[in-house]
Amino acid sequence: MLSMDLFRNQVDKIREDHNKRGLSHESIDRVLALDEEWKGALKEMENSRRERNLAAKGIAEAKKTGDVATSEKIMSDVKNLGEVISALDKKANSLLEERDKIRMSIPNLLHNAVPVGEDEGGNTQHSLHGVKPDFSFEPRTHNELIEMNKWVDLERAAKIAGSRFFFLKGDLARLEMALQSYAVDFLVNRGFTFVQPPVMMNRPAYEGVTDLSDFETVMYGITPDPLYMIATSEHPLTAMYMDEVIEPSLLPIKMVGVSACFRREVGAHGLSDRGIWRVHQFTKIEQIVISHPDESWDHHEDLLQNCVDLWDELGLHYEVVNICTGDMGTVAARKYDLEAWLPGANAFKEIVSCSNCTDYQANRLRMRYRTSDGNAAVHTLNSTAVATSRALVAIMEQNQLEDGRVTVPNCLVSMMGGKTHLEPCKW
RNA sequence: GCGGCGAUCGCAUAGCCUGGCCAUUGCGUCGGAUUGCUAAUCCGAUGGGUGUUCCCGCGGGGGUUCGAAUCCCCCUCGCCGCGCCA
C-alpha cells in the first residue's frame, strides 16, 4: 500500500507509474477525492468532540463547586451531542474505509530500471549462467524420468487428495531433503537466521502481505477456523513484525525460512504443468530481509547474488531475467526471476523469484522502525532460495543419463550418504 | 475443553474498587547542553492524525452515561491449574 503522504504530496509519481504500467488514473483520483471528503467529515466530527469535551469539563467544575443548576443546564444542552458524534464518526469511518480499500488495490511504485513491457514477453535477460548440457541421446522430460524410476506417485496422491498432489519416493525424496539442508546451511553461512514459521495465517495478517485477489485464486481457506494455508513462508516471515516498531539496531533482519507451501493454482492447466512442476503443495526455502529503506536496493542485489552462487554450486544452466512492468504484480517494486534450462521442454522455466517490495507491505502491516524524526516504514524483501519440486525437475532434466539415472550435484553428495546417482525405486 | 487471573505509548509500571485535571513513573533510544576522566550529570523529544493552543489512542468490538483506561456484555490473545494429547 502506498502511503497517503505520497498521494497528497507527490501524486505525479504515482501517475507516471500508472502510465508505465498502462493503467487508468481512475483509482488515484478516487483516493484523492475520498481523502478530501474524509478530511471534511473528520473536521466536522472533531468540532463536535471538542464541544463535548469542553462541556464535560464545565460539568465537572460545576459539580465540584456544588453548582447543580449550571451542571444540569450544560448536561441538557449537550445531551444529544453523543449521537451527533457517533453519526459523524460512522460517516468519516466509512469514507476512510472506502479510500483505503481502493488504495490497497493500487500497485507499488516501480524502480526506474524496470523494463517497460505489456506482458512476460517484455522481460529482458539480465545474465546467463552455467553451461547448456549437451546430450548424446534424446533427453527425457522429467515426467518420463519420474515415471520410469518410480520416484513420484501422482495417481495414488490424486486418489487420496486430488490432482496436483504427489508422493515423493526413494532417492528423489532423499535428494529433496538434501536440497533443504544444503540451502539452509548455505544461507546460515551468509548471516541469515533459520526460522520455521506457522503454515497458517489469519486474514488481517495475510492482507498485509499479498494481493487481495490471491484470496480467490491462490490461498486455501481453513474450515471452520478463519485461517489460510500459507502460499510461501515469505508471508508469515514478512508479517512477523506486524504492528511493531523495530529498534533500528536490529536492522537488517535476515531470515531463511523453510516451509510447505500451499497453492490452489486455480485456472492452471496444460501439458507443461504436468508432473511435479506445478503442484498444490511443495517445500520452499526462502530468503527474507527486513531492511532500513536506504539499504534495501543493496540487499536486493545481495539476495540475487546468493541465488546465483547457490545455483552455480548446484551446477545448473539458467538465466536471470528482469521482470517488466506488465509482468510485475502489485507488491514488488523490482523483481528478478531465475529460469532454469529444461532440456525436456527445450525452454527456460521459472525456478526463483527475487523481489524488493520497498515499503508496500510494511505500510499495510504497520511495520516501522524508530528514527529521531518519528517512526518510518521499513522495507521488505523476499527471494526464493530453492523451491524443491522445481529444483528436482531442473536437476533431473539437466543431469539425466541415457539409462534414466540422474547424477547428484557434487555439493549434495555428502548429504546423500555419498551417493552419486539417483537409482530407480523398486515399487 | 473447563476454572482462575490478566492485557495501559519501544520495554516495564501507576491509575480501575469510588467514571470528570494534561494517562503516572522508571528504563531504553534519539537530540541538545555541560564537565578532563572508559563516563557522569542536566534539559528536551520519543503512539496516531485532517485543521497540531485541536482531535483520537489504555488488546478488539459493542453497550450504559452529559462524560469511560475506569462500569456492563461479547471476542481475541497471554499466564496458572485441571483435562486431553504427537
Task: Report the C-alpha radius of gyration, rounded.
Answer: 27 Å
CATH topology of the largest domain: BirA Bifunctional Protein, domain 2
| CATH class (first level) name of the largest domain | Alpha Beta
The domain count comes to 2
Low-confidence stretches: none
Helix content percent band: 40-55%
Q: Number of DSSP helices?
A: 15
Number of strands: 18
The average pLDDT score comes to 91
Distance between the termini: 51 Å
Outline the fold blueprint:
Elements: H1 4-9, H2 11-21, H3 26-64, H4 68-77, H5 81-105, E1 124-129, H6 142-148, E2 152-153, H7 154-160, E3 167-168, H8 170-188, E4 193-195, E5 200-202, H9 203-209, H10 214-217, E6 221-222, E7 227-229, H11 234-239, E8 245-246, E9 253-262, E10 281-291, H12 296-313, E11 318-322, E12 334-342, E13 347-356, H13 360-365, E14 368-371, E15 374-377, E16 379-387, H14 388-398, E17 406-407, H15 410-413, E18 421-422
Parallel strand pairs: 4-9, 8-14
Antiparallel strand pairs: 1-11, 2-3, 5-7, 6-7, 9-10, 10-16, 11-12, 12-13, 13-16, 14-15, 17-18
This protein binds one RNA strand of 86 nucleotides through helix 3, helix 4, helix 5 and strand 8.
Could you explain how this protein is built, in words?
- It is a single chain.
- The protein has helices at 4-9, 11-21, 26-64, 68-77, 81-105, 142-148, 154-160, 170-188, 203-209, 214-217, 234-239, 296-313, 360-365, 388-398, 410-413, and strands at residues 124-129, 152-153, 167-168, 193-195, 200-202, 221-222, 227-229, 245-246, 253-262, 281-291, 318-322, 334-342, 347-356, 368-371, 374-377, 379-387, 406-407, 421-422.
- The radius of gyration is 27 Å and the shape is elongated.
- The protein has 15 helices and 18 strands.
- The strands form 5 sheets. Strands 1-11-12-13-16-10-9-4 form an 8-stranded mixed beta sheet. Strands 5-7-6 form a 3-stranded antiparallel beta sheet.
- The protein has 427 residues and is an alpha+beta fold.
- The longest helix has 39 residues, at 26-64.
- The chain has 2 domains: 4-105, Serine-tRNA synthetase, tRNA binding domain (Helix Hairpins); 120-422, Bira Bifunctional Protein, Domain 2 (BirA Bifunctional Protein, domain 2).
- The structure holds one RNA strand of 86 nucleotides.
